[in-house]
Amino acid sequence: PFAKRPAGVKGKKIAIGNFKGGVSKTTTAMTLAQGLSLFGRRVLLVDLDPQASLSALNGILADSEVSDEQTVLPLIYGDVDD
Ligand SMILES: Nc1ncnc2c1ncn2[C@@H]1O[C@H](COP(=O)(O)OP(=O)(O)OP(=O)(O)O)[C@@H](O)[C@H]1O
Ligand SMILES: [Mg+2]
């Protein structure tokens, strides 16, 4: 049902945030991505939460499968600038 994004037009960024815990932020991000994918959109999910539950929902065990260097942590610490 969605028209394809014309060449040269940038993709949209959607951030899910709330100060309160346990109010469905991660679930909203996941189901929004799933829904957009089912409508034919290409979706990149970026998990910025150290809790990494969005990664876990996608089958990635952050504790054992992801090193700090593979996350945004070095950028946040200022160790890298890109
Ligand atoms: N629409 C819903 N109906 C019922 N349960 C829900 C719904 N949305 C989320 N939940 C449940 O509520 C709990 C918290 O959801 P979720 O982890 O998405 O919240 P969160 O805001 O990301 O939490 P946190 O602050 O810990 O990151 C989970 O167990 C999730 O399965
Ligand atoms: Mg969460």
3D architecture notes:
This protein has 82 residues and is mainly α. The protein has a domain at 25-77. It is 34% helix and 0% strand. It has 4 helices and no strands. It is globular and about 40 Å long. The relative contact order is 0.11. Bound molecules: adenosine-5'-triphosphate (ATP) and magnesium ion. Adenosine-5'-triphosphate binds at residues 21-27, 51, 53.
Query: What's the Cα radius of gyration?
Result: 15 Å
Number of helices: 4
Q: Would you tell me the structural class of the helices and strands? A: mainly alpha
Order of helices and strands: HHHH
Distance between the termini: 36 Å
What general outline do the C-alpha atoms trace?
A: globular
Helical content stands at 25-40%
Number of strands: 0
Largest sheet: none
Mean pLDDT: 92
Unreliable stretches covering 5 or more consecutive residues: none
Tell me the β content: under 5%
The kinds of small molecule bound in this structure are: adenosine-5'-triphosphate, magnesium ion
